[in-house]
Amino acid sequence: MSAVIDRRGFMAASLVGAGALAFEARIALAQEPGAVALNAFIRIGADNKVVIGSKNPEIGQGIRTMLPMLIAEELDLGWDQVVIEPTLANDKIYGVQSAGGSNSTPNNWLPMRQVGAAARAMILSAAAKEWGVEASSLTTAAGKVSHAASGRSAPYAAFARGAASETAPDLAKVALKDPSRFSIIGQSKIGVDTVAITQGKPLFGIDVDMPGLIHGAIIKAPAHGATIASHDPAAALKRKGVLAVVPVNSNSVAPGKFDTLVVVADSWWTAKNAREAVKVTWDDAAQVGFSTEAYDRQAAAAFASGPQVTHAKNGDVAKALAGAVKTITADYSYPFLAHGTLEPQNCTGRWVDGKLEIWAPSQAPNNGRNDTAAMLA
């Protein structure tokens, strides 16, 4: 990555940013005093509270709460012991981190359970060594290890340091709970963010604030793939508080072209209003046929010409329909729809000591992270 970043590069990277499970990796987030990390997802505090990292973006379906539930179940915790925090965007440590297609639950059902079960196995191994007993003679429940034969019992925190030095078991071979023993999975739990949301507490990407923050308001192309033919920022630049008007390639058009303008100012309100003063001419010739109406015409032509592809044939459908007493025909269509977001699209970036730190709501944070790195290389 280059040591110097110009304004256009920073803006482009910020726009992009707004877009295999390594169990052995030790957690990179700051740890509270006395806490012990067992792996990239689990940190046990001296008070026996267990911080569990939730790796996927939350876009309203409860994933941020659900993923830690899978880990907590196999780790044999009481839900009141669990503290949930988001992980950083790093797919090399946490595996795929994205939200889309309702895949978060099926894709993580087994891996997250294995993470919890493996951590539990490490705790049992550490406890067995400390007590001089077989691990198979130990049981766990609500964040405690028990040895029925001797009547001993101790919280996970007592064995955390020893467990952290244990070799992580093979995730593919670690024993998992029988579903009949589930006490967390399948139970209704209040969303980890629900209280903060109802109280209006800072939670979203747009809530990020810091000293010296400047603001950018985006002027988007009227059609996807359109580019700037010409623009005149003079009137906007005369307004008090406006710092610059920057053409940007959002990584959606060919190199050397620009499809976005960013009005940079000392406040969001100033930048937003200054957008109206920028004169822009767009080249959208390539997108003339990209519209709901155009697609409707193409669909009508396709239907009129008969079946395009035969995937399977069982009998004579045309003959059966021709001889039917009654047939029902209906056409269904829907227009292009906006992909509604939980908050206004936004991104905050800070360039310090040759590194760019980004806060952004995104369904695919690692895509944005990787594209940003490539753009600034």
Please tell me about this protein's structure.
This protein is of the alpha+beta class and 377 residues long. The chain has three domains: 20-198, Aldehyde Oxidoreductase, domain 4 (2-Layer Sandwich); 205-287 and 345-376, Aldehyde oxidase/xanthine dehydrogenase, a/b hammerhead (Aldehyde Oxidoreductase, domain 3, Alpha-Beta Complex); 292-322, no CATH class. 29% of the residues lie in helices and 18% in strands. It contains eleven helices and 14 strands. The strands form five sheets. Strands 1-2-3-4 form a four-stranded mixed beta sheet. Strands 5-6-7 form a three-stranded antiparallel beta sheet, covered by helices on one side. The protein has a three-stranded antiparallel beta sheet with strand order 8-11-10, sandwiched between helices. Mean pLDDT is 88; it is low at 19-30.
Outline of this structure?
This protein folds into three domains: 20-198, Aldehyde Oxidoreductase, domain 4; 205-287 and 345-376, Aldehyde Oxidoreductase, domain 3, CATH 3.90.1170.50; 292-322, no CATH class.
Q: Any key phrases for this structure?
A:
single chain, 377 residues, alpha+beta, Aldehyde Oxidoreductase, domain 4, Aldehyde Oxidoreductase, domain 3, 3 domains, four-stranded mixed β-sheet, three-stranded antiparallel β-sheet, 11 helices, 29% helix, 18% strand
